[in-house]
Amino acid sequence: RENMTGRGRGKYSYKNDELGDALQKVREMAIRDELTGLFNRRHIMDALSQQKALADSGNYGFSLCFLDLDHFKSINDTYGHGVGDEVLKRFARVAESCLRDADYTGRLGGEEFILVLTQTELEGACKVADRLRADLARQNFTDLHPDLKVTVSIGVSTYRAGEALDTTLNRADACLYVAKA
Q1: Beta-bridge partners for 48
Q2: Distance between CA 181 and CA 172 in Å, rounded?
C-alpha cells in the first residue's frame, strides 16, 4: 500500500484536476457550437423546454427571437468560407453582448440563430431585437473585405401559456419571413 503523504498525494491531486478539466471540456463540447461558442441546437431546445415548463407552472413568461443573417450565402460565395466563418463568430459576440446573464442564445445551424429571453414580454423582446440589429449595423467588417456589410433579419414571438413550443417557434419563423421580405 502506497503512502499518500507528500509527493504522492500531489501527483494524484494533479491527475484529478486534469480529469476534472477534461470532463468540463467534454461537457462544453456537448452543448456548444464549435464555431461560435454559442449553445447548439439540442441544448437550446432543452432550454426552451425548461422555459415552457416554468411558464406553464405559474406567472412566468418568455419570448424568443429567430435571427437570420441576410444574404449569408452571398458572403460565403463572394468572400470565401473563411470570411463567412469570421462573420458568424463576430455576430455571435454581438448577440451575446445584447443579452442578460439569464438569457440564452444559440446557433440553430448555418446562419440561423435563436435568442431565448427569460421573463420578457413582446415589447421587451422587440427592444432587444432592435438593439442587436443596430449593434450589428455598427460593426466594422472592412478588415475582412472593404465592401463587406452584414445585416440580420429577426422574427420575435412570446410564449403563450399552454401552447406547444412549435406554435411559438412557428410564429417567430413567420415574423422572420416577413422581416426577410
Answers
A1: none
A2: 14
Q: Which of 2, 111, 112, 163 is catalytic?
A: 111
- Return d(Cα 15, Cα 17) in angstroms, integer: 5
How do residues 4-25 score in pLDDT, each as one tens digit?
555 556 666 766 777 666 666 6
Beta pairing, strands 62-69 & 152-158: antiparallel
Handedness of CA 100, 96, 44, 174 (dihedral sign): positive
Cβ atoms 65, 114 nearer than 8 A: yes
111 is catalytic: yes
Per the CB < 8 A criterion, the answer to whether 89 and 36 are in contact is: yes
Beta strands in 28-102 (DSSP E): 62-69
**Three-state SS for 85?**
helix
The residue to which cell 447548439 is assigned: 40
What's the predicted TM-score (pTM) here?
0.84
